[in-house]
Amino acid sequence: MEGFIYCFSNGSMPGLLKIGATERPPFELLKEANDADAWRPPAPYNLEFAKAVREAKAKENSIHRLLARFAERRGFFRAELEDVRALFNLLDGPYWTPPPDAAEDNEDGKSENGKSVDGKKPCRDPSKVFYHGQKIRHRTKVTNHTWVATWDATAKAVDHEGKKTTLNVFASNHYRIERPDRGSVVNAWNECECETASGWVSIKDLPVIAE
Length: 211
Fold this sequence. Notes:
By secondary structure, the protein is of the alpha+beta class. It has helices spanning about 25-35, 55-65, 80-90, 125-130, 165-180, 190; strands at about 5-10, 15-20, 45-55, 70-75, 75-80, 135-140, 145-150, 155-160, 165, 195, 200. It folds into two domains: about 5-90; about 125-200, no CATH class. A six-stranded antiparallel β-sheet has the order 9-8-7-6-10-11. Strands 3-1-2-5-4 form a five-stranded antiparallel β-sheet, with helices on both faces. Strand 4 and strand 5 form a beta hairpin. It is elongated, with a radius of gyration of 18 Å.
């Protein structure tokens, strides 16, 4: 089959990598992996890198055989990220880059990843959950490097060092600068936090600010 081979990581499973093959664009599989009704991950998966190849299943089997002694369970391996990338480098085919809109925020109130604990879709409109000047941060999973920005309610944008962007572009730019080995695909709603009176909290299920 023609398709992609991919490498996923998960912040709750440091050092453990999911390596597989798919006929679909890797970002679609990533969204499925992070759906609470599918893979049921303990924390969101991240796409480290992917490659478009021919005979994707055969190449997946070859990589699995080469990494067999590092296998933890089917498709999961306790291996160094750069060692896996070195194996990918040996395969013909280009590294996959998502289309520009693949990682854009879904800001129309629809959720891409499951439901909140009360059964309702979590809000995905930043202007309804952040107050002006509220601090928002993103940390890289492996290096634990942190970027901090603020919410500009007037511009309805994340302000990082004077540059106004969407949430996902903010987090994506962080990976692009601090983790160029990883790739920049990200779901900021799963990874970012905001500062509140009680400390930093995940933005995944924030309540809507009363108007």
